[in-house]
Design a protein that fits this description.
By secondary structure, the protein is mostly helical. 62% of the residues lie in helices and 2% in strands. The protein contains twelve helices and two strands; from the N terminus they run H-H-H-E-E-H-H-H-H-H-H-H-H-H. It has a two-stranded antiparallel sheet. Helix 1 runs antiparallel to helix 2 and helix 5 crosses helix 8. The chain is globular and about 60 Å long.
Length: 293
């Protein structure tokens, strides 16, 4: 007699696996972002973990077509998506590395390359100008999930990001498109925004317009960085990367690690040691008997 897993139980298990894979992939990318001396082993590990997430997302979608992953998992997946393209920008992966965006959406950002030329492969990485909306969407999603507002520290990082994006276009890509500076710094609150309520554009707009003081402070900080952006070369790329890395690490640590990560560590929030060991045994993490003492 065939026995099928209870759909609700299967969903919980699949979400736990997805969350576990996403978390580990993020950690591997942050490790790459934190060093300029990337070993082939670390790159291969990050490549493998990203591909595992991408593969499991396909399975998750096929099994749970009408389900949106838990909000924290969706946020972590946004974080992974941004971390992937940001790391890819500075440290291009080998060919055939790709990452889907969200468990509940079919849109896919592909970073695949058939070129064996490193320079051509680098050119296929997203520019900072292209990754900037992903950074802002991630920040807006974080604020919405926590019910928080943007801080002065975040505004400094966002304005620095915009300045770096502009400088890169001018210095690296030799872009002389009219209005380039204004495009890089156009982000802010528009009281006449007509974007759909649940759209990323609307979330980003509302993030900048949380209150009057935020609007005024952002206008001031943005103006300062516009001047810095015009003086190309005055901002440190190394410092910028460090600040973005710190932001991502802080966002990752703002929430409890996935249950499977906690089980691996032997400490599950809200459970005693005995209960944790029992859960590990039932989950297949260990085959040792549980100590009753």
């Amino acid at each position: 007699m065939d026995r099928k897993a209870d759909p609700e139980t299967q969903l919980e298990v699949d979400e736990a696996i997805l969350d576990y894979l996403i978390y580990n992939a993020i950690l591997s990318l942050l490790e790459l972002l934190g060093t300029n001396d990337i070993s082939p082993r670390k790159e291969q590990n990050a490549h493998l973990l990203v591909q595992m997430v991408d593969s499991f997302l396909s399975v998750f979608r096929s099994l749970h077509t009408n389900h949106n992953a838990a909000p924290v998992i969706q946020l972590r997946l946004r974080l992974l998506q941004f971390a992937f393209v940001f790391v890819q920008h500075y440290h291009p992966f080998s060919a055939n590395t790709s990452l889907s965006t969200r468990a509940s959406v079919t849109v896919k950002i592909s970073m695949k390359s058939t070129s064996e030329d490193p320079d051509q492969e680098r050119s296929q990485a997203m520019s900072l100008e292209q990754t900037l909306p992903l950074f802002l969407a991630l920040s807006a999603a974080q604020n919405e999930l926590q019910g928080s507002t943007i801080t002065e520290i975040w505004m400094m990082l966002a304005a620095g990001y915009m300045a770096q994006a502009y400088i890169e276009q001018v210095v690296v890509y030799q872009n002389e498109r009219p209005g380039l500076l204004e495009e890089a710094f156009h982000w802010g609150y528009d009281e006449d925004c007509h974007a759909e309520e649940a759209s990323e554009e609307r979330q980003i707009n509302d993030m900048f317009g949380a209150d009057g003081s935020s609007i005024r402070l952002w206008a001031s900080i943005r103006a300062e960085h516009v001047e810095a952006g015009m003086a190309a070369g005055t901002l440190s790329v190394v410092t910028f990367k460090e600040k973005v890395s710190e932001f991502l690490a802080g966002l990752l640590s703002a929430y409890q690690p996935p249950l499977l990560i906690q089980l691996e560590s032997g400490e599950v929030d809200g459970l005693s040691r005995k209960a944790t060991e029992t859960l590990k045994l039932r989950s297949g993490f260990t085959h040792q008997a549980v100590d009753d003492t």
